[in-house]
Amino acid sequence: MENILRSPCTNNCFVPPGTDLCTGCYRTIKEIIDWINLTEKERNEVLEKIDKRKIDHGKTE
Question: Based on CB atoms within 10 Å of each CB, which residue in 9, 24, 28, 44 is the most buried?
Answer without folding.
Answer: 28
